[in-house]
Amino acid sequence: MGKGTNTRAAILEQAIHIACHDGLERVTIGSLADQLGMSKSGVHVHFGSHAKLQLEVVKAYACKFEAAVMLPALSSPAGLPRLHTILAHWIRHLSSAEGRDALCINCAAELEGPATEVREELVSLVRSSRAMLETCVRQAVKLGQLAANADDCQLAHELHGMMLLLHHDTRFMRQREAAVRTDKAVRRLLEGFCSSAVKDSSPRSCETQAVLATLID
Length: 217
Fold this sequence. Notes:
This protein is mostly helical. The chain is built from 11 helices and no strands.
C-alpha cells in the first residue's frame, strides 16, 4: 500500500470518527486538516470537494460494517445458521467501542431531508443489510428450518429494530446487559418460527456461540 493510499485511509478513518460523533456536516476538509496536522490542500487532493469527501466517508463506513458483520457469515451454512451468525456479529459489533459509532444510525436524522448522493449511499447500506436478513429467512423457509408462514420482510424488520434498540441501550442508556438481552430477544423471535424439525436442536453454530460468548463477562 503506497503512502498516498495510507494517507487517504487515515483521513477517512478520522472522518468516520467525526461523522459518528459530531455529524456528517462537521466532516470538512478544514476540520480534518486541523485534526490530522495536514494542510487543507493535502486533504483536498484526495477528495476534491466537501460533497465527495462525505460520500467517500459513507462508502468507507459501509465497507467496515460489511467486513465486521456480513462477510464473516458467508462461511456459515445458508438459512438459519447464517442468519444467526450475521446477528451474532452485528450484536458484537454494536457492543464494541468501534461499533457504537454506528454512522447509519447516528446520522439518520441529519439526512432525513432532501435526497442527496450521500443520503442515498447510506440508505443503500441499510437496505442491503435488511435484504441480507430477508434472504436468510427465505432460505431458512426453503430448507425447512423456519415455518412456511415466516414472513421474510416482517422478520427482517423486527430483527433490524432489535439492532437499533441495542445501539440505543448500549450508547445512550449505557446498559451493559443490552447485548445479552438482544441475543435472547433474537432467539425467542426466531424460535417462534422454527419448524418442528429444528426446534429440538440448536441451529446456531459453534462459531456463533463463540462470538456471543465474548460479550459475557
